[in-house]
Structure formats: structure tokens, C-alpha cells
Amino acid sequence: MIKDKFTITITDINGSRHFYLSQIIKKIALYIIIFVFLFLVLSGFYIKYLDGKVSELDEKKQELLEKTKELEITNEQMQKSVEEKAQQYSMIEDKIAAFEESLGLESENNISITQRLDNLELTNEQQSSILSQIPNGYPIVNKGITGNFGWREHPILKRREFHPGIDLKADVGTPVYAPANGVVEFAGYNENGYGYNVILLHNFGFKTVFAHMTRRDVVKAGQFVKKGDLIGYSGNTGLSTGPHLHYEVRFINKTLEPLYFLNLQRKNMNNFFNTERRVPWQSLIKAVSV
């Protein structure tokens, strides 16, 4: 018994051709199978490629986690170092206080203004002598202050720190002058964040520090300078957020408020002595009054 089959007949000038529907279905099915097979093979390769990428990302993630742990350990070590240095500075302050007591200098907190100054009237010559030997006036052209003395949040490290100086607004290349007679203790690049800096030693235990300067060797260690002499140029070196001059005033390693010294003039000298109480002025006045 012969079953009927659906056929498709195509006739042209070359004659007629017959196609059975079952053959067409078989070919379509074969094409579908081939397509599915190729799709699965290509999908397998693509999945394998993505797995490789995921593995690379996992490795990078692990590396970043390890670096983060290393940075946390380094930060903890730095914090401990800062605390140790703070303790060292505190010990130095105690030693300085003991040294002052051994010299017979009373604590400034226990001395009245009248006792501190001994009611001494300084002559013009004595005033000029003091102003030439202790820091006074601005070391650069006064264009304003961008950072004050005291506790603040560090603009780069983003943590609360004590700012031992004052930041004076200045473009790169602004001339910097000695605020008093002295000798250059240091002039060069420092890795402690100050960049290129200059340190001057003055009479009576005073010291001034100038940081973030331009790398130009205007002065060198051991060189004597007079008040008003050029010692360098402002810049943006070291740990700095922009061009300025970082200026410090110290007295036997005590950091003092630079603003008092910036505004010091002959006409306000008595007010200055009464304001800056971390220096035993009574003994200095006695020394220059002899």
C-alpha cells in the first residue's frame, strides 16, 4: 500500500522538478540542528571567556584588598609614630621649663605684666636693637593669610593636626626676606612635607622657618644675613595645596604665634610683650638694658 505524499512541483523551460514535503522538513530540521549546535558551541566559548574575565577581576579585587590592609597597617604605624613624637615634644617642653627654672626664670603664668616688664622704658636704640635681632614684620609682601596658627584639619591628609606656623598668600617666585639678623641653619629640600625650606637662627634663642619655597639656592647653611636680606623665593614644593609661604617662629623649640611677630613694630612693642607670654621678656629686657 503506497501512502500519498505532499509534493511541490516546479516547472520551467528545463522541465519539471518535484520536491517532497518530507525532504524539505528534514532539511529545515537539519539546518536548525546545525544552527543550535553552532550557537551552543559559540556560547560555550563566550561563557569560558567571561569566566576568565571574572577570574581576573577576582584577582585584582584580592590585590586591592591586600593593598588596603597594607595601607591600614602603615597608617596605624604612622599614628603611633605621631603619638610617640608628641610625647617626645612634651618631654622637651618639660625639660625647657626645668631649664628656665634653673636659670631663675619664673613661669610666665605666675608673673604679672608689671613684673614681667619690670616697668622698664626702652630707649630708641634699645628698641632698634631688639627689632634687628628678633623676628618682626612680614618676610614677604603682605597679600593676606590663607592658613592660621593652631589646630586644624590638614587640607591634604584630612585629619586634625597642629599647624605650627602661618600660611602667607604668595605667588610662585615672590621674594622672601630675613625678618631679623641671623645665620642660616639650613637651606635645601626636606622630605618632611616642607619641600624646599630655609631655617634662620636669630639672637636670644629665636628661630624662623620658611617652607614650600622654590628650589633656588639663594643662601646656604652657615651664611650670615641681616634683616631685610633676600633669602629665597616662595613656591609650591612639598606637601602643599597651592603656592604660598609657610612661616614659623620658634623660641628654644617652642612654636609661637607668628601673627604677633608679623605685626610687631616699635610703636606697639609694649603691647607685643604683654600679648606673647611664652617668652620670658623680663630677662631679655634686662639683657639689652645693661
UniProtKB/TrEMBL annotation:
Alphabetically ordered keywords of this record: Coiled coil, Membrane, Signal, Transmembrane, Transmembrane helix
InterPro entries given in the database record: Cell_wall_metabolism_enzyme, Dup_hybrid_motif, M23ase_b-sheet_dom
UniProt domain M23ase beta-sheet core: residue ranges: 162-257
Transmembrane is among the record's keywords: yes
Transmembrane segments: 28-47
Pfam family membership, one: Peptidase_M23
Superkingdom in the source lineage: Bacteria
Gene3D superfamilies to which the protein is assigned, alphabetical: Glucose Permease (Domain IIA)
Recorded coiled-coil stretches: 47-95
Key word Signal present: yes
Protein name: Peptidoglycan DD-metalloendopeptidase family protein
Species assigned in the record: Campylobacter cuniculorum
